[in-house]
Amino acid sequence: MRNFILFIRRFFNFILFLVLEIVCIVLIAHTKTLQGNDITSSANRMTGLMYQKQNDVVYYFGLRRMNDSLLNENARLREKISTINSIEVVKDSTVHRVVAPADSTHVVRYADYIYHTARVINNSVSSANNFITINRGSSTGIERNMAVISGNGVVGRVVHVSKNFASILSVLSVEQKVSAKLKDGTYGYVTWDEKKPDVMLMRDVSQQIKVKAGDSIFTTSYSFFPADVLIGTVFNIETIKKNNLQLLYLRPSTNFRNLQYVYVVENKLGAERKQIEDSAKIK
Amino acid sequence: MSIYLRNFLRFCFIILLQVLILNKITLRWWLDPAGFPVFIPYVYPLFILLLPFEISVVGLLILGFITGLTVDTFMNTAGIHACATVFIAYLRTNVLSALLPKNLSEYANQSPSIKNMGWMPFLVYSGFLILLHHIVFFTIELWSPGNISYLLLKIVASAVTSMLFIIVYLLLFTRQSKARN
After folding, report:
1. Is residue B180 part of a domain?
2. Does any domain span residue B61?
3. A194-227 tens-digit pLDDT
4. Closest-approach residue (CA) in chain A for B34
């Protein structure tokens, strides 16, 4: 026993060093599961407040750029509305088809979205997993695993929520895949390969599918994202000789370097859908 | 100013400098934006490097852990910065005693600085520890053994810029008059 105490006293520094390193590694290991540990996330009150104060100062410098992006988005939405309004319902005056009232139940509703706006108060593009902090939290109805999009396209997923702040894991993350589809409906997924914040990859697209540079890639309704949100546009196509599959290089449609505002998408039917999918998984 | 107060103020200042200003600067190779990794300079290990000479290893380890964890909280990295900072805090005493001609206990009431170490020894001391910090940090962050060249590129680029920022910091915030302690 005396020897043991002597040993501890002799190597106390080294033992403390090892203990602290093990604590760090445990903390890191906790985040690798993406369940996350809320102790060290930028969504907590102190850091959130700090970022909020800093953003209040820097905010005005970005107003002009933000104004432009909002104008662009308005123009795009107006265009969309006009295409919807311009479809005339062709009425055939000779044949009157009676629509049975029961038929209206064939319209299946699988999602019901509410968009919350939020201001970005912290942002990064340089690490292997990039996080964004926004100034909305559980007090305004933000919950974990909600999808986040910007005016231009996908942004990420909410991972930590505190009362007034939330942090988002952006799609520029080695741990996050996004379910994606091409214009013709071919499904796949989009990943990021951690090197460049301006390039994303869509792997394993079969060679029969003709893809051109400039094609758009959208989200699917399979994931937590709302369907048909733009992810990016293809700018380079590479065929891998080994398995004859195509590798598509995308430019993300969202400019992650100067995000100002994002929309947090709440799906009212999401919980129900999650429940039924989980129950299917267990059996 | 007491040495505790001064170090506490330096802690706050360096953390805020790192988190609110340097983290927003994403550097890259301007000629080819997509071909070079983006990175940010990490200046906060300087707090550990500038602690007084006679501080014990235990104190260094605990302060290193706190510093790392604070930066982790701001950057959502959960322990990676703490791991790297504890590592250099543990090695600091050995590096210092290897570099300095006199025994560490003879520098009573002093902190490592350009003035009492000279430019070259101080740059070697900080450069070596910053490089170790970056190696540990980026190895854990990227964790992809298949991509060694990218990892090395990121470590070297980041370490060089961090050192540049540290030199600028020292030039700006070293007292020109005769230091009291």
Report:
1. no
2. yes
3. 777 778 888 888 888 888 888 888 888 888 888 8
4. A196
Beta-carbon separation of A17 and B141 below 8 A: no
CA distance A187 to A220: 8
**Dist. CA A60–CA B114, nearest whole Å:** 39
User: B177 to chain A, minimum CA–CA distance in Å?
Assistant: 33
What is d(CA A9, CA B59) in angstroms, rounded to the nearest whole number?
Answer: 15
Distance from C-alpha of A1 to C-alpha of B176, rounded to nearest angstrom: 55
Read off the pTM. 0.75
Residue with tokens 């206990």: B105
Identify the residue whose tokens are 């070697």. B124
Interface touch A25/B83, C-beta < 8 Å: yes
Residue indicated by tokens 């993406």: A34
Backbone angles phi, psi at A50, to 5 degrees: -60, -50
B33, pLDDT greater than 60:
no
ipTM value: 0.81
Nearest to A13 among B23, B58, B77 (CB): B58
Which residue range forms the structural domain that includes residue B154? 3-173
Q: Is the pLDDT of residue B130 over 90?
A: yes
